[in-house]
Amino acid sequence: MSAPLLHAADVRKTFVVRDESGRRDELVAADGVSFTLATGGSLALVGESGSGKTTIARIVAGLETPSGGTVELLGEARTGGRVSRAVRKRRARQVQMVFQDPYGSLDPRQTVAACVEEVLREHFDGDRCWRRERVASLLQQVGLEERHADQRPRRLSGGQRQRVAIARALAVEPRLLILDEAVSALDVSVQAQVINMLVELRRTTGVAFLFVSHDLGVVRQVTEDCLVMHRGRVVEAGPTADVLDHPADAYTQRLLSAIPRPGWQPRRRTAEVSDA
Amino acid sequence: MTPAPTPLLELDGLRVDLRVDGALRRVIHDVSLRLGVGEAVGLVGESGSGKSITARTIMRLLPRGAEVAGDVRFGGRSVLELGARDLRRYRATDVAMIYQDPRAHLNPVRTIGDFLLEGPVHAVGASRADATEAAVALLRSVGIPDAPRRLRQYPHQLSGGLLQRVVIAAALLAEPQLILADEPTTALDVTTQEEVMAILDDQRRKRGVAMLFITHDLDLAAAVTDRLAVMYAGTVAEVGPAADLHRTALHPYTAGLLAARPSTTRVERLTTIPGRPVSAFEVGPGCVFASRCAHVEDRCRAERPALRALEDHMVACHRAEELRGALGLPAAAAR
Ligand SMILES: Nc1ncnc2c1ncn2[C@@H]1O[C@H](COP(=O)(O)OP(=O)(O)OP(=O)(O)O)[C@@H](O)[C@H]1O
Ligand SMILES: Nc1ncnc2c1ncn2[C@@H]1O[C@H](COP(=O)(O)OP(=O)(O)OP(=O)(O)O)[C@@H](O)[C@H]1O
Ligand SMILES: [Mg+2]
Ligand SMILES: [Mg+2]
Asked: Which of A128, A173, A199, B246 has its C-alpha lying 20 to 30 A from B164's C-alpha?
């Protein structure tokens, strides 16, 4: 067993919100969340909207401070809040995050090559020639063609933009790549290409994935382990194959039974609605 | 042979051009489709293939400056030629539309009750008491027990799943003959999607209402429809029986879509379709799928295949007969 890359213990996150009459209220977005991700491993966070997946991902990325519990990356505690530029830079070399929306995360004025090169310039000493070669190899790694290098995001399709975002994240050679619904907005024919690319990428580079998704089919292809979250808590955890083939928790079972597949028929599970 | 009854809805060689920056842009090349009374058909395809534009053409709700050729007939009458008064009645009572994002189509400052009763009271002239009673009964049948309270609430006070149930109730309240559902569950969680689909399916069947169900999800569409029409780049590539299209697909695009779905039960290198989905205006004179098809020949690039009958399918592929059995479908294997 390889050394753990990431370890979360009893993580809790609350937000202060206002209810309808304007009173302060505490919303528990995550509670008692613990997990370990091995070096080069791939862990899925699955669950429905609002279950706390992004909250956990943002805490691991250092974009949010936990209200309780600890997160350790490479044996070092991650504390949120203000940190020095040097610390921020060092952390960026360890963890990168890719979001669902490939449109929002790229600068519309930058060409694809410039966007990746910028990251290299910030983090490495190599000369221009080295950077050029590195950009070319990163673009190739994510399945983009040479001709894409001089294009601006506007001219790219959703799948291509998402590949650029991934190439940019990989440029710093992070140990951990957090992918938050990174393939969810893609059409199925393009999504399949990006999934294959991600699987190949992890095999060849050894980067670990924290893979946030509500799509259990995608999770099966990309991850080894999985955490099922429901209302901020982990309801089931284990190897992805075991969890999906033999779900033990009632909520996981419900989630799996709701996925359309050949021969499936939608059924009403509840007589009444419990939401809102 | 008895003559076939008049279909409820016929799309006949539909072609649509929209105005983009002053110039016309082709968004639908050729869509022909029929729906019988009470029949459910799924319109499936990737983003930009023209599903929503097809639905909007049926409702005659295209953006200004759009040009439509071919015909849309409802109960044998051309929808494209309806006068203002008939068009209003057609939209109010013959066809009901359900959208992906109910919030975007509901007025946030009006109550659920106002929204539900608007049609019956204003368009049809029912009394408010009768309409309220009907609305409450209907809300119950779509799984909303505390209906009287809900009628006084505003859209923001309801969850997405609950709001979509309200929209389904509103659609049924008009007692239409046809429901156009454009990705009604895409914004919902999968468990909520199952509930909402079960309700829509059940109510639609009970009332004998026909449905055109638009979605990206082939398996979801197959579960609630009789036939599936697969669209690509503004064209219908294939129409076939919903229940076994996953085994009997004849068009390389349908087969490619099926193979690209990630399985929840197996890990495999996914079969992909190269490139990206193209828009109708980007395709050449040949088959709209030619640029991505693994089975393309010279003829496919030069000549656009017409949608034609083959077995119990309709397929727009020159090579459909030859390719039967060669599209790599999982013959009997479970996914
Ligand atoms: N900054 C914030 N302020 C207040 N509440 C928040 C904030 N961020 C998240 N929440 C709430 O925390 C809960 C968990 O949200 P989170 O975004 O982690 O869910 P998620 O599982 O990622 O959902 P989705 O699948 O919709 O992305 C939700 O109820 C959400 O509304
Ligand atoms: N108002 C508009 N003006 C110009 N072009 C439009 C307009 N609406 C849609 N289009 C174009 O028409 C084509 C078909 O769009 P349509 O909305 O029907 O796709 P769709 O199949 O519903 O896709 P999605 O699954 O993303 O909803 C696309 O190329 C789209 O860019
Ligand atoms: Mg999220
Ligand atoms: Mg659409």
From this structure: B246
Residue whose token pair is 């004849």: B250
The phi, psi pair for A235, rounded to 5°, reads: -100, -20
CA-to-CA separations, A151 to A86, A161, B275, in angstroms, rounded: 32, 11, 17
Copy the structure tokens of residue A270: 């509840």
Tokens 């199952």, located at residue: B194
DSSP letter, residue B291: G
ipTM score of the complex? 0.89
Measured in degrees and rounded to the nearest 5, phi and psi for residue B73 equal -115, 135
Q: What type of residue is A169?
A: A
- Give the C-alpha separation, B272 to A60, whole Å: 32
| Tens digits of residue pLDDT in B111-168 | 999 999 887 777 667 788 888 888 898 898 888 888 889 999 999 888 888 898 899 9
Residue with tokens 């079960």: B198
Q: Is the CB of A55 under 6 A from ligand 1?
A: yes
pTM: 0.91
**What is the spatial distance between Cα A198 and Cα A182, in angstroms, rounded to a whole number?**
11
Residue A63 in contact with ligand 1 by CB distance below 6 A: no
Cα dihedral value B129, B135, B139, B145, nearest 10: 0
Long-range contact set of residues B137-143: C-beta below 8 Å, sequence gap at least 24: B138/B169, B138/B172, B138/B173, B139/B165, B139/B166, B139/B169, B141/B169, B141/B199, B141/B203, B142/B166, B142/B168, B142/B169, B142/B172, B142/B199, B142/B203, B143/A268, B143/A270, B143/A271, B143/A272, B143/A273, B143/B195, B143/B199
CB-based contact, B71 to chain A, within 8 Å: no
By the 8 A CB rule, do B170 and B192 touch?
A: no
> Which residues pair with residue B97 across a beta bridge?
B180
Taking an 8 Å cut-off on Cβ atoms, the answer to whether A160 and B276 are in contact is yes
Compute the Cα dihedral for A185, A188, A194, A200 and give only its sign: positive
Cβ contacts of A87-94, under 8 Å, gap ≥ 24: A89/A122, A89/A123, A91/A62, A92/A123, A92/A172, A92/A174, A93/A123, A93/A172, A93/A173, A93/A174, A94/A174, A94/A175, A94/A176
Calculate the dihedral angle through the C-alpha atoms of B124, B125, B127, B131, rounding to the nearest 10 degrees. 10
